[in-house]
Write a structure and sequence with these properties.
Chain lengths: 570, 86
């Protein structure tokens, strides 16, 4: 058995498919006959183009044109006359094999491109490497399946999956995935929950222990992987899957009902989304709104900034589909661990404490204004709440608001339809903002507490660093005090407070959060009905009493015991 | 042989789509087409060649045509660059 961290609930039983880019070693080898070698090279280019054409039309049909354009660019490189010429010349002059000739020519281009200042061209170096790799595999006769070429139902096993890898996963074929690194809050884990794919991450050495085709049982709750399970174990897990499905049916019975506590206190149970594609999941799980729309995914996995119109289309789709329900859109949050290939961000010593999110936006006004214009234009279609991330001081909020006003004036002058009927709020993820919540509360319309970063900044502990993972303490009284400061300050001014971090989706935490006075909880869509079902078991007055005791506690452990006791009585 | 110096005014420069559009248009010409910037001359039918010149916004480049219909081709290519928009 392999033990990792359960990252996304659910059970999957299936065969292992290991995903690892094969390493190709090319040495200088002489060829027998120059003519045949050139012919061999031409043939491999043709085969490469053919494969790419298929991939391109497949992505056009199944995904979007932007992704398909990547393969279009690869085809262009293979058709490039200078590439063919340089390789042929080298084969002739040095009498070497096509593999070696291609590798050296490609390396030369890669070196030229990587040395360039322009971020866009540097990124093209990756395209050349990628496409060279494809042709080298053909020349060497190695068959390597990429992620997009998986054509049967499998459990994917990888050392690591990037957000763009994860985004490309086919939900029909990937029963679940297992990675060596990562934790519950790493991006691939969060995306797995959104996509409702069972996942286990952080197995350490799972990749090396598993072989292609191994039958395994993946338990996304326990974070465990059973290799070559016995018939009994399979039956046992099938039974568990049955119970899971029954529970799901119970939760489903909460469809269409109000989200409120036993004593009828209304709480909004909203969803976190990353793209308009996630709306289906929100509607089918009956979310009370969107509590966090992460707009950075609109900017990721592409080759240039999304235009105002592209953004407008996305925002409009989301707002339109949600009708009157509130939609909280977080403005671009890049920097930290999220980079854009086409946007040159200087390397920083402490990226999480560096120039990210709103800080970056305020220094790149064109980029920021484009997003705000798209948002205000889309505001016509629904109940827009604009939320600024990474706010530390009130001046930052005022500055962001003044940019919004500028954008309003611009749109007015240009006679472009837009709406002033929107709300503005901030994300609480920096302790400085929580401590001055009373000041912010007078000027913002709402708050949303981002627990992942708030915990990391409060405890000064990198949430990706396994050695300090013990400091990821969502139930620590220090954090609870910060939360309580925010809700108290907000309610005094008649404003509401939401929570959109991982903690908001933890059923166990529900009574504590209700007791601390949160008005809205935003989670991955599949958690909503379960939360609604659990909410009905909670009496808000009792929850308040428990939260007050939690605030007096000394350790996270004590708080957890209080919560356990609460659930036992409920 | 004909040539003309043009300034690239669009924000993207001769990168991404404009670069590939230019290479395609050059490939469609019967004559040979070159681009020259800062003393470096490349085959303009090659997208890799064009990219190695790093032609950003505000760059001045010579478009050179040589062979069949060189005059018409030059005009077509110069027009392409001057009409680039973002």
């Amino acid at each position: 058995m392999i033990q990792g961290i359960g990252a996304s609930d659910g059970i999957a039983i299936g065969k292992v498919y290991k995903y690892e880019p094969v390493e190709i070693v090319i040495t200088k080898e002489m060829c027998q006959d120059v003519e045949t070698e050139i012919l061999r090279f031409d043939e491999s280019i043709k085969a490469g183009i053919e494969a790419l054409e298929i991939l391109k039309s497949k992505t056009e049909n199944e995904m979007d044109e932007e992704t398909a354009a990547i393969f279009g660019a690869h085809i262009e490189i293979l058709r490039d006359p200078e590439l063919a010429k340089a390789v042929s010349e080298r084969i002739i002059s040095e009498k070497v094999k096509a593999e070696y000739a291609l590798k050296t020519v490609s390396d030369r281009f890669v070196a030229i491109f990587e040395a360039m200042e322009d971020a866009y061209i540097r990124e093209r170096a990756a395209d050349i490497k990628d496409v060279t790799r494809r042709v080298l595999l053909i020349l060497k006769g190695i068959k390597s399946k990429g992620l997009s070429e998986i054509d049967e139902a499998v459990i994917l096993v990888a050392r690591d999956l990037t957000p763009s890898d994860t985004a490309l996963l086919n939900r029909e074929l990937i029963l679940g995935f297992i990675t060596d690194i990562g934790g519950r809050t790493s991006h691939s884990a969060i995306m797995a929950r959104t996509m409702e794919i069972p996942a286990v991450v952080g197995t350490g050495g799972g990749f090396d222990q598993l072989c292609n085709g191994d039958l395994v049982i993946l338990d996304g709750m326990m974070g465990s992987i059973l290799i070559h399970p016995t018939a009994d174990e399979i039956e046992n897990y099938n039974e568990k899957m049955g119970i899971l499905n029954k529970e799901k049916a119970l939760w489903k019975s909460c469809m269409g009902q109000k989200s409120s506590t036993k004593d009828n206190k209304d709480i909004d149970l909203a969803a976190n989304i990353g793209s308009p594609d996630d709306i289906d999941g929100v509607l089918s799980n009956d979310g009370d709104g969107i509590g966090l729309y992460r707009t950075e995914f609109l900017y990721m996995g592409r080759k240039n900034f999304p235009t105002e119109d592209e953004q407008y289309d996305s925002y409009k789709t989301v707002l339109d589909n949600m009708g009157d329900k509130p939609v909280v859109v977080r403005t671009l949050d890049i920097g930290g661990d999220k980079e854009l290939s086409y946007f040159d961000m200087p390397k920083e010593l402490n990226p999480f404490l560096g120039n990210r999110a709103l800080r970056l936006c305020l220094q790149n006004m064109d980029m920021f204004k484009t997003q705000l214009r798209a948002l205000l234009r889309a505001a016509v279609y629904g109940n827009l709440h604009i939320m600024f991330p990474m706010i530390a001081t009130i001046e930052e909020f005022r500055k962001a608001k003044s940019v919004l006003q500028e954008v309003e004036r611009d749109l007015e002058m240009e006679k472009i339809p837009y709406s002033r009927n929107y709300k503005t709020g901030i994300m609480i993820e920096i302790p400085a903002a929580a401590l001055l919540a009373n000041v912010f509360a007078k000027e913002v319309d709402f708050f949303s507490i981002g627990t992942n970063d708030l915990i990391q900044y409060t405890f000064a502990a990198d949430r990706m660093n396994e050695h300090v993972s013990y400091l990821y303490q969502p139930y620590n009284p220090s954090l609870l005090k910060l939360i309580q400061m925010v809700t108290e300050a907000a309610h005094k001014e008649g404003k509401w407070v939401g929570m959109c971090g991982e903690m908001a989706g933890e059923i166990q935490a529900l009574p504590l959060l209700i007791g601390l006075g949160l008005d809205e909880l935003s989670m991955s869509a599949p958690s909503i009905l379960k939360a609604r079902y659990s909410l009905k078991q909670i009496d808000s007055t009792k929850a308040k009493g428990m939260a007050d005791m939690a605030l007096q506690s000394c350790t996270e452990e004590e708080v957890k015991l209080l919560i356990d006791a609460f659930w036992n009585e409920a | 042989m004909k040539s003309k110096i043009v300034e690239v005014k669009n924000a993207t420069g001769l990168h991404a789509r404009p670069a590939s559009g230019f290479a395609k248009l050059a490939t469609a010409q019967k004559c040979e087409v070159f681009l020259e910037k800062d003393g470096n001359k490349v085959n303009a039918k090659s997208i890799l060649g064009i990219l190695t010149l790093a032609i950003g916004q505000g760059s001045k480049v010579s478009i050179i045509t040589d062979g069949v219909d060189e005059e018409v081709s030059l005009k077509v290519l110069v027009d392409f660059v001057s009409q680039l928009e973002d």
